[in-house]
């Protein structure tokens, strides 16, 4: 397991993460990318704690996702199954588990202040923290995607499910976009990854 972890998370985090996996008897599966989530946790029918994490994540996001899912397990075990999945008990657990990893030996220095801010009140997904999400994305492998905030108004783009949209306006923090086929309006986070199409 340790040699597998070495491929996916920062070197100085391998030992403590391996300990968390052992202590909590986690069955970790690394899976092909799912667009809607980075990872998930469930207690299998056999009573085993199963955590899946997307193989495509960069090592910093992989580490955060794995700790996020372990925090679900630990919070459910400690507080019971009736807690909200991303409620106060989970937030406290996630903070407690994550803080030891927010160190310069593990994360690049430019991420440390953003992580410190994010973990004062962690969200259900780090993607909703646009500043942190964009900072993490710079460590992703090169791809042909753009972020919505980068493309000009009036641009036409495609999202992961093949639907095509036109960027129309900024509404507070999100971008209003028109789905070309239906004419319906949708709102996108600024850091949504899209494929820009030639007009």
Structural description of this entry:
It is built from 6 helices and 9 strands. By secondary structure, the protein is an alpha+beta fold. The strands form 2 sheets. The protein has a 6-stranded antiparallel β-sheet with strand order 4-9-5-6-7-8, with no helix packed on it. The protein has a 3-stranded mixed β-sheet with strand order 1-3-2, with helices on one face.
Keywords:
199 residues, alpha+beta, 9 strands, 6-stranded antiparallel β-sheet, 3-stranded mixed β-sheet
Layout of strands and helices, then pairs:
Layout: H1 2-8, H2 14-23, E1 26-31, E2 39-43, E3 49-54, H3 59-79, H4 88-98, H5 112-118, H6 130-137, E4 146-147, E5 156-158, E6 164-171, E7 174-179, E8 185-188, E9 193-197
Q: Please, how many helices?
A: 6
pLDDT < 50 stretches:
none
Portion of residues in beta strands equals: 15-25%
| Share in helix | 25-40%
Supply the helix-strand structural class.
alpha+beta
Q: Secondary-structure element order, as H and E? A: HHEEEHHHHEEEEEE
Described by the principal axes of the CA atoms, the overall outline is globular
Mean pLDDT value: 91
**How large, in whole angstroms, is the Cα Rg?**
18 Å
| Strand order in space, largest sheet | 4-9-5-6-7-8
TL;DR?
The protein is an alpha+beta fold.
């Amino acid at each position: 397991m340790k040699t597998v972890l070495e491929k996916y998370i920062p070197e100085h985090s391998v030992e403590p993460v391996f300990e968390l996996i052992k202590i909590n008897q986690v069955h970790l599966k690394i899976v092909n990318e799912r667009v809607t989530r980075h990872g998930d946790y469930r207690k299998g029918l056999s009573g085993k704690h199963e955590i899946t994490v997307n193989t495509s994540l960069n090592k910093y996001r992989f580490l955060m996702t794995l700790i996020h899912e372990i925090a679900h397990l630990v919070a459910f075990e400690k507080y019971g199954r009736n807690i909200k999945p991303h409620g106060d008990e989970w937030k406290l657990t996630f903070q407690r588990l994550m803080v030891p990893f927010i160190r310069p030996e593990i994360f690049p220095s430019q991420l440390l202040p953003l992580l410190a801010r994010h973990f004062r009140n962690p969200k259900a997904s780090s993607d909703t923290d646009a500043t942190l999400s964009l900072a993490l994305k710079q460590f992703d492998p090169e791809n042909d995607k753009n972020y919505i905030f980068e493309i000009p108004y009036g641009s036409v783009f495609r999202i992961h499910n093949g639907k095509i949209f036109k960027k129309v306006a900024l509404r507070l923090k999100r971008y209003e976009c028109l789905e070309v086929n239906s004419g319906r309006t949708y709102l996108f986070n600024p850091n949504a990854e899209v494929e820009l199409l030639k007009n």
